[in-house]
Design a protein that fits this description.
With 96 residues, this protein is mostly helical. α1 packs antiparallel against α2 and α2 runs antiparallel to α3. The chain has 3 helices and no strands. It has one domain. The longest helix has 33 residues.
Length: 96
Amino acid sequence: MNKVGKKAMGVGLGAVSALMLVGCAFAVLRIAAHLFPGLGLEHAEWTHWLAVIVIPETIFVAAAIFLWRKKGPVAVGILTTALMMGLHVAVHLAMR
C-alpha cells in the first residue's frame, strides 16, 4: 500500500474507533437504564449529556494529543469524528 493509502487507512481507523467508543457509551447508558429502572436514567437528560457527549469528547481530545506524533492520521480521524459530533450537538441545540 502506498503512503496515501496508509494515511487514509489510519484516518478511517481513527474514525471507526471513535464511533465505536460512542456506541459503547450509548449502549452502557441504555443497559444501565434497563438494569436499574429505579434510577430514572432514561428521563434524566444530564446522563445523556455526560455519558454520550462529554466523556467521549474528552477521551477523543486526549487520544488525539497522545497519538499526534506517532499516529497522526489516526489522530486526525479521531478529531474529525469529534468535530462531527460537536457539530451535531450544535445543530441539535440550535433547532430547539
